[in-house]
């Protein structure tokens, strides 16, 4: 019965979405939209309530292991720990799409609840656009991936879940990423509404800004967490593989980062109107492309866990409809958007334009690299594109972007002089130069690009705190603090990436129990290999005694795990985090003669990569808090006036 | 000009869309075949890993007899499984060169002492550069190179007993 209730909730949500689209469109066309807008707001709320209800019902079905539901039987098992039963609800195709559309509906409800600044017509059009997107994905759920389909007769137990996904990281990674992906839908809907209503200006930008910031924070957290998760779960010691699925999350982030900066220009200086609209469309388009790439299985990836090519065509049709439609609307209408304020070549605006251009070029490069195998396939060639391509193309542009990130915040709005900029940049440039010389000598000149990255990271760190110079810290606006922290986070993350490239040590060997290996400053002794068991797996576990110099040894226990349902092998890396880096160990296969394959890494300061990502997200959060506070204050003053 | 620019995003999207539709209609083959098959062996100059064996220098061995090039590693378990087949190939007269991927002298010496040594030369490929330039995606892989120095065949994965005649035939054809 419960499953049927879930399906009913989904259909009701669909009905409300259709009503929201129709009434919203009518309100946008009507002369006096305010009257009908109240109705649209309420319908948006109801749509979110029913979508959320359907999702909660699915979680309940997974939590109670209701095997008469096909999706649960295929993806869960009664012996699974509760956390993974619940996470199982979105660890599969149907469930993840339901989560996607739920977030979409909840975001729409958020707009209807909190948005007070926009003109009534534009807001009605925004909600109508949001509903139009939702309807397509409801249809996708109903016709191509019903999460509540029954299985008759019900099996005695389920078929389990991909053991790679039985990890706390999974419980939070996809939902976070989806919040970011779908949060960008709001920016998209705002842009579509602004184009339809020819209402582009600072008010529109200020309304859009918190949504972009919020979505961007979730994307940042999602990518950072996903990178760390792949790092310790896949057991390759790498933190970014330029894999299609990772690129799928990176592309919306790049677009959202560009949008975040351009929307500020539009909000404060009323410049970059058409460009901001374009970016808002591109950002959500990239989210949809990302979802499509992951869900359709069209590209070969290490991360795609729930793929189905037959559903790809449905998703692709939706993609064509929404992206194509929005771009056509852009082409037809953007000519009527008048030019906003202009600015000089050396100014904060110009630096932000540079930031936008460089981010867009990186986005283009990543998109080309990700889709090129499809181009080659169309011409009858099989190939895959890996890290070397991206390192040669995206990295140099990213370095220019880092330099721009250092200089941009030190420029004044509208007009500034090159000389003044140079004098403000003296210290960061000096720091970059000195650290380049130092690390070039230290690393032996093996990887000059990584040395440049490291040196720039130090320079950027200095430049990013410079905007606080001679300011009263207490009275510095929160968005400025947010910018400082986020830019500092970029510097920290870059330092971690460069340190990992320059100073990591790797050792690969087949060793017998009692043998010792050396990696970096550590001596690693294989003390024992013995069997061990968990709730739904058994494993061979190595006991490694790891010692640096003469300090106290510690023990690491990497495992080879065997899951019974479905039968799968995974290797569980054992990692220890020290103040100056991580020791990363992986147990491989036995050779049948008493020796075991062991992979060891010493990765100095690698943790900075994710710490930096966290700082970037924190910076976003601080800025968001500042924006919301000033928005709230403005609303209160308006109420008093 | 400005009109064109405005419609450019839509145009680009239509092209990408068409490509993706094409990719969806014709799903790809997931095995990564090297694009180097049928092409001359790339110039490799790998230092020797063992004191008593030459490294690999393609400029020195370009002319002459057809050879096999085995990409292996001492830490690779399937490489242990294919070792007897490589010995059989050697006994049948095949000349086998090797590229040791991410390996050390001591480990390779121990590996060859345990599993037999079918190799004429062993090149040291610590950074996996040579492996990449060959278009090899993992260990073990075996390439057949003809007398003119052209790669004529690629065997992905360990060599099973039933693969030996096929590889010998390829080697015979490569003369």
From TrEMBL, chain A:
<feature type="transmembrane region" description="Helical">
    <location>
        <begin position="480"/>
        <end position="499"/>
    </location>
</feature>
<keyword id="KW-0472">Membrane</keyword>
<comment type="similarity">
    <text>Belongs to the CcmF/CycK/Ccl1/NrfE/CcsA family.</text>
</comment>
<comment type="function">
    <text>Required for the biogenesis of c-type cytochromes. Possible subunit of a heme lyase.</text>
</comment>
<feature type="transmembrane region" description="Helical">
    <location>
        <begin position="43"/>
        <end position="63"/>
    </location>
</feature>
<feature type="transmembrane region" description="Helical">
    <location>
        <begin position="425"/>
        <end position="443"/>
    </location>
</feature>
<feature type="transmembrane region" description="Helical">
    <location>
        <begin position="353"/>
        <end position="374"/>
    </location>
</feature>
<feature type="transmembrane region" description="Helical">
    <location>
        <begin position="394"/>
        <end position="413"/>
    </location>
</feature>
<feature type="transmembrane region" description="Helical">
    <location>
        <begin position="314"/>
        <end position="332"/>
    </location>
</feature>
<feature type="transmembrane region" description="Helical">
    <location>
        <begin position="210"/>
        <end position="230"/>
    </location>
</feature>
<dbReference type="InterPro" id="IPR002541">
    <property type="entry name" value="Cyt_c_assembly"/>
</dbReference>
<keyword id="KW-0997">Cell inner membrane</keyword>
<feature type="transmembrane region" description="Helical">
    <location>
        <begin position="121"/>
        <end position="143"/>
    </location>
</feature>
<feature type="transmembrane region" description="Helical">
    <location>
        <begin position="97"/>
        <end position="114"/>
    </location>
</feature>
<keyword id="KW-1003">Cell membrane</keyword>
<dbReference type="InterPro" id="IPR003567">
    <property type="entry name" value="Cyt_c_biogenesis"/>
</dbReference>
<keyword id="KW-0201">Cytochrome c-type biogenesis</keyword>
<feature type="transmembrane region" description="Helical">
    <location>
        <begin position="274"/>
        <end position="294"/>
    </location>
</feature>
<dbReference type="InterPro" id="IPR003568">
    <property type="entry name" value="Cyt_c_biogenesis_CcmF"/>
</dbReference>
<feature type="transmembrane region" description="Helical">
    <location>
        <begin position="250"/>
        <end position="267"/>
    </location>
</feature>
<dbReference type="InterPro" id="IPR032523">
    <property type="entry name" value="CcmF_C"/>
</dbReference>
<dbReference type="GO" id="GO:0015232">
    <property type="term" value="F:heme transmembrane transporter activity"/>
</dbReference>
UniProtKB/TrEMBL annotation, chain B:
<dbReference type="InterPro" id="IPR050553">
    <property type="entry name" value="Thioredoxin_ResA/DsbE_sf"/>
</dbReference>
<dbReference type="InterPro" id="IPR013740">
    <property type="entry name" value="Redoxin"/>
</dbReference>
<dbReference type="GO" id="GO:0016491">
    <property type="term" value="F:oxidoreductase activity"/>
</dbReference>
<feature type="domain" description="Thioredoxin">
    <location>
        <begin position="35"/>
        <end position="173"/>
    </location>
</feature>
<keyword id="KW-1015">Disulfide bond</keyword>
<dbReference type="InterPro" id="IPR013766">
    <property type="entry name" value="Thioredoxin_domain"/>
</dbReference>
<keyword id="KW-0201">Cytochrome c-type biogenesis</keyword>
<dbReference type="InterPro" id="IPR036249">
    <property type="entry name" value="Thioredoxin-like_sf"/>
</dbReference>
<protein>
    <submittedName>
        <fullName>DsbE family thiol:disulfide interchange protein</fullName>
    </submittedName>
</protein>
<dbReference type="GO" id="GO:0017004">
    <property type="term" value="P:cytochrome complex assembly"/>
</dbReference>
<keyword id="KW-0676">Redox-active center</keyword>
<dbReference type="Pfam" id="PF08534">
    <property type="entry name" value="Redoxin"/>
</dbReference>
<dbReference type="GO" id="GO:0030313">
    <property type="term" value="C:cell envelope"/>
</dbReference>
